[in-house]
Structure formats: structure tokens, C-alpha cells
Amino acid sequence: MSPHDRSDPSAAPARHTSTAELDAALDAAVAAFAALSSLGRSGRARLLRAVSTALEADRDDLVTTCEQETGLPTSRLQQELSRARFQFEHFADVLDDGAYLEATVDHRGDSPAGPRPDLRRMLLPLGPVGVFGASNFPFAFSVAGGDTASALAAGCPVVAKVHEAHPLTSASSFRAIRRAAESIGVDTGILSLVHGQQAGTELVRHPAVRAVGFTGSLPVGRLLADVAAARPDPIPFYGELGALNVVAVCPAAARARGVDIARGLAGSFTLGVGQYCTKPGLVLIPAGPDGRALRKALITAVGEVPSGVMLSERIAGAYATRSTALAGHAGVTVLAGHSDRRPVDAGGRHGAPVLLEVDPDQLTGDLLEECFGPILLVATYTDVDQLRSIVSRTGPALTGTIHADGTDSEVSRIVLDILVGRVGRIVWNAFPTGLAVAWATHHGGPYPASTSVLHTSVGATAIRRWLRPVCFQDVPADLLPDELRDEPVDHSLARRVDGTLRVTS
């Protein structure tokens, strides 16, 4: 099918998937599971690289469709589509490497605990999974996003719930991926789309679904997590939900480069009209002239940022309501933003940046909750004890940021020790918006940042969510997966054999 062909029924924005259609999608996924698993690592790597090629071939159509549908700027969408492509290529590299399987062999023998049978263990795919698209990333966290890439890499067919903010973009991404599968002879049942809230809930409940990946709001994510847990057979629900990300500026850093920090911070919390889950929501600055200079520079920088088009009227309206409520709190002063404390036209889609100053003693309750949009709270600490107290009050989050120079080591160590127990990624002398797709990346954190503190939705180890360990005891060699045989076909695979980590040769 041509990437420009709009006749596919999955392209209809107002569609709502029926129960029968959902069952058919899951039947197709179940049927495709064995074929996807049997491709092996090399076959699935070829599939992922074919998907990357197909996305590139459809780049103009994908970006044009998404720009018209979401209002996001072309430059942003071009970059995000490149990121989506790279995620498929990255997981192809993960498959080539193979270490993610945790292949382990313990040969038969004696041990201090007595005779040991032949034991061989590795990670195997769970089965069909559900993936929910995110409103704010129509490529990188949606149908052509990291959850889909990592699940297909693991060997799990995907049924993707389309986000209502970009159904046409989702359909175009779907067609590109399906075309890639067809081009190398892979069962197209590896990917299906469903539409509508009811279908999304039924997807989580469906007995054929073995896990779910979700990126979105806390209320919806928690609701679906509870649905997953309430099933007769509970399944993992990997929700990346977001939270208030704190930035701590230590005294020496404020003195040495306060103006630069202020400018960078203004750019970070207003990036994408504040609609990134990694957006900084609270900055802590030191009292005294250095802190005041940083604060002044931040006010100036925020005042220079124009309003922007938000993802939907609903999101813009929620931002208007929430930011106005925060501005009206006791102990809160508006430093930059509309003087009437109505920073957004609630009937439209524009959101203007707002900078609020909060009395540290009043920093409790909903002031410590995420507000989706371009808003930042500023609190001033007088000494290290007050800084420790404020940081300790902030809840779990995806990120925690520290700006520190050499003489800040004592203060920064205190903040670091607190954040290590509360966030999934610690950022040093930079800003949390911007997330690399890499082997060491972790994007998650304790609830409510995510529903599973053990896992990430970005980076190589995101594949771990879609796998389960299986141990083979005394199983004949010819029935074992290749990765567990004494003479595997892939001699470059890292394995732990009889307790020693090594590469077979």
C-alpha cells in the first residue's frame, strides 16, 4: 500500500475498535508470536532495520501528516522521527550483541550444597503485548516508538492503542512498519492498532496480552495499572507517568554561572511548551546576592519566551486551570507570566510560560505535584539544612538535577545522596529535558514516576520488560535454544558458564 493511501480503515480518526476487532487483532498477534520468536535474534534485527528504512522512506509523508494533525513544528518532528528510527536500529544492535538474554550455563557437577544437575537459563519473550501511544511524542513514544521497537526486538507482537491526538500519524507509522515486515516475509500480525478508550481498557484485560507499556498521565496510568493487577492472571503494567523533577543549584555554581544556569533552565522548562515528562518543575536556589542574580536572570529569560501551541485544547485548558490554582496558593508569588494569573486561553491551545516563587515553608501538597505545561516553581534556601529539608520533601521523580562547582562538594553530596533514593536519572550540570537512547540510559523511577521502579522505557534495557527467565534442567542439547548449547552458532555471545562470565570461542 502506498504511504499516501488513506483508504486503510485504521486511518479513520473517529474509529472505535469493537470487541470483535480487538479479539481478531489479538488472535493475529498470538498466531504471529511463534513466527516472530522463530526468526531468532538475527532475523528480528533484520526486521527492525527494515522498519527504520521504511520510516525513512515515508519521512515526508509522516512529518507532513503529523504537523497537520498536531501543530508541532516541522523541525521538532523531523528530529523526533530520526529518534524513532534510531530506536529501531539501536534495538537491532542489542539483538546482535545478545547479552540481554542473560544466557547462563551451569554444567552437571558437585557443589557445596550437593550434586547439581545440568542447568541452563535465559530470557524468553512473554507473548503479545499492549502498547499505548503518548500524546506528546507522536513518533518516539507511540506506534513507531521505543515500546514497539523493544517489544518486537524481544520477540513479542504488539497491539498498539492509538492516541486520539494523532490517529492519522499512528496509521501512517503502522503502514510503514507493516510494509517493512512484508518486505522480509514476516507475519504482519506482529503489529495491530486499536482505537478508543474502551478498547484500551479491554486491551489491558484481554487474556492474550502478557504485558503492557504505557506513557501518559498519572490518573489514566494508575487506572490501567489497577486493571492489569485486577485480572484473574495479573500482568506487568509498565507505566511511565511523570512527576515533579527538582533542580538544586549549589552556592558556588550560582556564583560562578548563575546567569547561564538561569537561561538554560528557562529553555528547559519551556521546551515543547513544557510538555515533556522530564521538564524541571522546581528549582532551588541559594539565598544571597548570587541567588538573587540568578533569580533576576531567570525572570528576564522567561519573559522573553513567547506562548506556544499546546498539544490539544484539553491539555491547554488543564494547564490554565492548574497553573492558575498554583499561582493563587498561599506563599506563592508570580515572578513572570500574565498579570491576571490566567496564563493560557482556556478556549484555545496556547500556553504561556509562568514562573512562580514559593515560600519553602509552604512547599507541600499539590505544589509538589507535576503540572503539565511551561510552569516552574522557584524556592530559595538559606543554608544546607534547609536545602536538605526541601529536597527530602520532593516526591519520587524521573530525574533530579544538581548544578555544582568544585567547592560545592559537601552540599552536592548531601543532595545527591537524597536523590539517589528518589529518582531514576541524576543530571549533573545540565538540564533534564533531552534523553539519550543508549545502553546506559534509564528512564523511570519510583512511583509515581513509573509503575515499576525496576525497569526503563528508554535505552537498551527497556527490552527486559518483555522477557521472562526460563531454566532448562537436563534438557537434551538438540532441544535447547542455540544460545544455551555448549557449541552455539553465535560464538561471540557473552554467557556466564559455570560461574565465569565469558565469550564463547
Automatic annotation (TrEMBL):
Transcription in keyword set: no
Top-rank taxon, per record: Bacteria
Keywords from the named record: Oxidoreductase
Record flagged with keyword Oxidoreductase: yes
Gene Ontology MF: a single term: oxidoreductase activity, acting on the aldehyde or oxo group of donors, NAD or NADP as acceptor
Domain Aldehyde dehydrogenase, residue spans: 15-436
Coiled-coil regions listed: none
PANTHER family: ALDEHYDE DEHYDROGENASE-RELATED (PTHR43353:SF3), SUCCINATE-SEMIALDEHYDE DEHYDROGENASE, MITOCHONDRIAL (PTHR43353)
UniProt-recorded name of the protein: Aldehyde dehydrogenase (NADP(+))
